From TrEMBL:
Keywords: Cytoplasm, DNA damage, DNA recombination, DNA repair, DNA-binding, Endonuclease, Hydrolase, Magnesium, Metal-binding, Nuclease. This is Crossover junction endodeoxyribonuclease RuvC. The RuvA-RuvB-RuvC complex processes Holliday junction (HJ) DNA during genetic recombination and DNA repair. Endonuclease that resolves HJ intermediates. Cleaves cruciform DNA by making single-stranded nicks across the HJ at symmetrical positions within the homologous arms, yielding a 5'-phosphate and a 3'-hydroxyl group; requires a central core of homology in the junction. The consensus cleavage sequence is 5'-(A/T)TT(C/G)-3'. Cleavage occurs on the 3'-side of the TT dinucleotide at the point of strand exchange. The lineage of its organism: Bacteria, Bacillati, Actinomycetota, Actinomycetes, Micrococcales. Residues 196-212 have a biased composition (Low complexity). Its cofactor is Mg(2+). It is found in: Cytoplasm. Binds 2 Mg(2+) ion per subunit. Gene3D superfamilies: Ribonuclease H-like superfamily/Ribonuclease H.
Amino acid sequence: MRVLGVDPGLTRCGLGVVEGLPGRRLRMVAVGVVRTPATDDPQDRLLSVQTEIDQWLADWRPDAIAVERVFAKANIKGIMGTAQASAIPMLAAARLGLALGLHTPSEVKAAVTGNGRADKAQVTHMVTRILALDVAPRPADAADALALAICHLWRSGADERLAAEGSAPNLLQQAERLAGQAPPNRLAQLHASHQTAARSAAARAAARAATTPGGTTR
């Protein structure tokens, strides 16, 4: 499975492609950063990001796209550009029919480092180790993009396992089915056997009463 991770932004948009399977060694395919001048108009900057992402999609042909989920911070002006940039890979996934994963920063940090509050240096260090890179990816936007791809690969494997477990028979349903197959209460069994014996005795008595001394039935 090949995943394109996108750390959205207008000034710097991190891109990273990771290939592998959950539980197996992962491999970095490509990493880079798209930069746009702050002096350009917003629409031109977004077009530059879109053009570069489209080129990466054509070159590397990923199976899925992982994008950082944007959430509100104190810097509302800065988050607007990030939100606008994040829409580009989301639309690309819809246009190309690719799987899309949105992951919060804490989810990515927890997946890669085991700590949802890890700093960027820790994330970069673990990405370098996980992908067995000789040189740490720089800047941090590039490392974050790779971390997003790693997170998506690992989480998709966990989601598949949960889905498989969810398709198994429900434990409560199993218990109810077994209860329905359980033998009747012992007291009920004794009561039923006594009733059967009484009916048999009555039937034998009626048969004797209906039989003549010669052994023929009236």
